[in-house]
Give the backbone structure.
Amino acid sequence: MAAQTRTLVSGQWLADAVRNSLIGPKFRILDTSWYLPKLKRDPRAEFAQMHIPGSSFFDIDECCDKCSALDHMLPTSNQFSEYVGALGIGNDTHVVVYDTSGLGSFSAPRVWWMFRLFGHSLVSVLDGGMRNWLSDGYPVTSEYSKPERREFNAAMNQSWVKSYEDVLENIRTKQVQVVDARSAGRFRGTEPEPRDDTLPGHFPGAINIPFTSFLDASGKELGTEDLSKLFREAGVDLKKPLWTSCGSGVTACHVALGAHLLGHPGVCVYDGSWSEWFKRACPEHIISEGEGKKV
């Protein structure tokens, strides 16, 4: 498939692939929808009711490190291999990911990044997600047939994953730019965090680019000119190392996707993100216009 290496695919392109019965061992579509518990949405139940024909459901809360106290931290290479193999994905499978967020894109970039992290570059994001798929009148179904398992061998690029200790050291050395993809209010400490045990704010030196900034009004990814402007106006130099963070490592991947579209594929993600940072950091490393962290 000539378009296998496209980072973004259009609804028209995917609709043609579905109509031409390309779905199979070499081509899979994944609904990667995930929502914060406070939204009270059940993406697996929504998938059972309606999805793009031929899709399988990728559960971010299942394909993760079950031993971590934090939400959906990255799985091991073996766990990832097992999980995606059960979805009928092999190392030669082109994977297209989408989600059902009303924004057009929310969690799909996380799964796109996960595949790349585990050595699989044959992965694309459906530009505009289910929101645009529906508004463009493309077909949906409730029918599902479980794909035949394939063997997948993951090779994790550990250097793309950053830890609490890495970020702490970077606060001291100021060597790497770190973009926080949460909303401006959560970043500044003026809006509540969605997790009850966490207050808003940010760590020293972080640059705020809310993940929604990467999308246009229709929910599709900005063009390269606008993406370049977005990074430039935030003071981010894409020629220098860049890490990204958010609430729990999901929307941070919008930053990685945006940089990748501009030819900078090596953006690293702080997997624990703010949900870990707030729990572990000392009060002086919590910058907030709100009440901040008590000792």
Notes: The chain is about 30% helix and 10% strand.
